[in-house]
Amino acid sequence: MSDSAAPKGFDVRPLLEVFARTISREPLGLAFHRPEGWATPTRCFENAVRQAKQKGGRALFGWMFHYRVVEDISGPGYLIAVHHAVWHSPTGELVDVTPLHDDPKHQPISQGGDVLFLVDTNAQPIAVGVTVGPRPSRFYALDADERLAAHVRELQDAEDEACRNLYAGGR
Predict the structure, then answer these.
(1) Rounded to two decimals, what is the model's pTM?
(2) pLDDT tens by residue, 30-58
(3) Minimal CA–CA distance to 117: which of 33, 18, 22, 29?
(4) Which residues pair with 119 in a beta bridge?
(5) How many domains does the chain have?
(6) Hey, how many other C-beta atoms are within 10 angstroms of the C-beta on 60?
(7) First vs last C-alpha separation in the chain
């Protein structure tokens, strides 16, 4: 099965709120996307910490969201919550300083260019020795189609296994 970008016209917001509440009861909103020239894509934890050291504030952890459909399964598709970090500025703004990934498949759900972000103070990065890494992504089927549910379970199982291997020292 291959995944692709979401079809236009499907309003994912109500289901996204339901999914978000299975993860955290903390605020769900937009983080201003203002990538720093020195920041590296896929290194959000390091980027947010560096920004906090340079400009004050702190790194704030939580989740950003992606929306995918499965081409050979009709229906609305599924959501992915990806562990993420933003900069919580001294003025209280949430700012995503990390540049977006080049692959359009890995673009987060956004509004007006800003990134939808769910605060989760329990989502601290996982530290193993000197390595710091993300918590496993979470997957959420947007309807009860059995094939979609099975696909989402397979994705979740593969993600969990990959993270177990990563933090156990395997790759």
Answers:
(1) 0.90
(2) 999 999 999 999 999 999 999 999 999 99
(3) 29
(4) 62
(5) 1
(6) 22
(7) 24
- Phi and psi (nearest 5°) for 32? -60, 130
| DSSP-assigned letters across all residues of 1-53 | --EEPPPTT---HHHHHHHHHHH-SS-EEEEEE---TT--TT-HHHHHHHHHH
C-beta atoms surrounding 95 within 10 Å: 23
Can you say how many angstroms the Cα of residue 47 is from the centroid of all Cα atoms in its chain? 15
Residue 8 has pLDDT above 90, yes or no: no
Percent of the chain, pLDDT > 70?
Answer: 92
Q: What is the domain extent for residue 120?
A: 3-167
Dist CA 142 CA 18 (whole Å):
10
φ, ψ of residue 83 to 5 degrees: the values are -60, 135
